């Protein structure tokens, strides 16, 4: 969808459909012959959030969407309202859609209009024999404001395109998104200013002593990929941001095989890696003055005569030994070596993102991602970035009892405690053994990575984490 901004009034644009936000207790700012205010006064249009009404005036359609009270208006409410309005505009056959930014709001509201519209407009139809007819969809978004918001709109487009690129990777079938495909996507980013990429395969992973990562990969015929990206922004300041993504491109559970029901969704177990690639793309295209080292561990987890077994002991690259209790707790094994690798590569602040535990869905549903960490200030910074972008998180506790639950009679620790108590916190406690002295935060996105049901990402991959990471990078630059 083409997107542009203007300081002209909505009626002066060439849009065929205009969206006006209705705020509680406020009149329509730029009425058209009394028509818009008339349907508001008559109660046909309402300020109730997401309420829709349609009118015709001055040769255009006008969609009035409720935004609630001004005090409640934030980026997330605006994203949802924008997605709702786009749905109605599609039904009306709109081709050029105009949004008027409410008066006296910050740039985050204009950005949210663009985000909500473009995220909602996303479609994955690569494998459709008859793709949806393009002529029935909205082709352009025009954002009207009294002030020049062209930079806000342009930067938001860059971020949303990166989110949607991550969604393309998530939604791809596993035979079209194996580790080699993620490696190709990463190599393409080396064309961006300041970005360098290194991809290493099975032999190099073993040579690095990454026994935990290698153990997960050994059951698959597909070659694993250790993907390391660096970004050095112009006049970069602040600590080196380390981003680590789990990218199990298909997770059968291995020898501890999963139930067949919904196993097809395990193509989404690479969502953390997709988010990291999307974040690097957006950060580089925005030219942010930060330094980033990003690590993606990509592999399949398959059952075979070569697969790791319950009871095996493996050695991670930081020399910690791990007893495999359940081969379906494979993501933490991949992350263990990738986290230690990121620290060795110079990360000074560390965040990992992974579809790690089903337990986090039981705790937070599809609303929050879980966050855990060993540094309160760093956890607060990541949490703040999530709040600003609507990718909200809720803190999980780390406790000595959770470390004790991972004690092994055979090795330094087990990969899972079969009692399955405090599963998300125990998994985070496991990862903490591989982060050294670097401030670290862990994001468990099993409930938010796909099928989250948000109006702007109702099904399929959500690209969760890209916007949070961009905001986090911006905070390090400031």
Explain what you see:
With 478 residues, the protein is an alpha/beta fold. Helix content is 34%, strand content 21%. The protein folds into two domains: 2-147, Leucine Aminopeptidase, subunit E, domain 1 (3-Layer(aba) Sandwich); 160-477, Zn peptidases (Aminopeptidase, 3-Layer(aba) Sandwich), CATH 3.40.630. The chain has an eight-stranded mixed beta sheet with strand order 7-8-10-9-13-17-14-15, with helices on both faces. A six-stranded mixed beta sheet has the order 1-6-5-2-4-3, sandwiched between helices. α3 links the parallel β5 and β6 (140-144). α4 (150-171) runs antiparallel to α8, α5 packs parallel to α8 (271-286) and α8 (271-286) crosses α14 (466-477). The protein starts with a strand and ends with a helix.
Q: Write down the overall geometry.
A: elongated
Oligomer: single chain
Give the structural class.
alpha/beta
Largest sheet: 8 strands, mixed
Q: Count the E strands.
A: 17
CATH topological fold name of the largest domain:
Aminopeptidase
